[in-house]
Write a structure and sequence with these properties.
The protein is mainly alpha-helical. It folds into two domains: 60 residues, no CATH class; 78 residues, no CATH class. The chain has four helices and no strands. Helix 1 packs antiparallel against helix 2 and helix 3 runs antiparallel to helix 4. The longest helix is centred in the C-terminal third of the chain and has 47 residues.
Length: 140
């Protein structure tokens, strides 16, 4: 099996996203030395499943402009929230606005990816199924 150009985003997601998300989880919850419970294995399994599905379905994303912009907006929002927390302004309107910006960017990312999955993956599959059914009915 040969890899095509549309496979490269999935390969990059599969290689880099899992460790990056696990690092983010460990840093956010400060569980670097967690021992005695299956928390880290459970979280690694959940993150691995999510990353694997993202890598699998990335083949159907043909226009990356909106997803990449949303990801960059989420990263910027996370950095801004961390900076606001360190500066001691966590309860202000600015902090709330930045957090809402991150939430909206996450929703935009999900809608953009889901729309492309349906448009580029599900609809062509249903069209092929309808063609197959029409050919089968014509042969009968």
């Amino acid at each position: 099996m040969r890899f095509s150009r549309s496979d490269w985003p999935g390969i990059v997601i599969a290689v880099l996203a899992g460790p990056a998300l696990m690092f983010l989880f460990l840093a956010a919850t400060e569980t670097w030395g967690h021992k005695g419970t299956p928390l880290l294995g459970f979280m690694a399994g959940n993150i691995g499943l999510a990353v694997g599905l993202a890598a699998l379905f990335s083949r159907f994303i043909l226009k990356w402009d909106i997803p990449i912009t949303a990801i960059l907006a989420i990263i910027a929002a996370v950095g801004a929230v961390k900076w606001i927390q360190v500066s001691g302004n966590d309860g202000t309107r600015l902090a709330t606005g930045v957090k809402w910006t991150g939430v909206i960017a996450f929703v935009v990312l999900n809608v953009a990816v889901a729309w492309q999955l349906v448009t580029n993956g599900v609809v062509p599959l249903l069209d092929r199924f309808d063609e197959w059914r029409a050919r089968r009915a014509a042969d009968s």
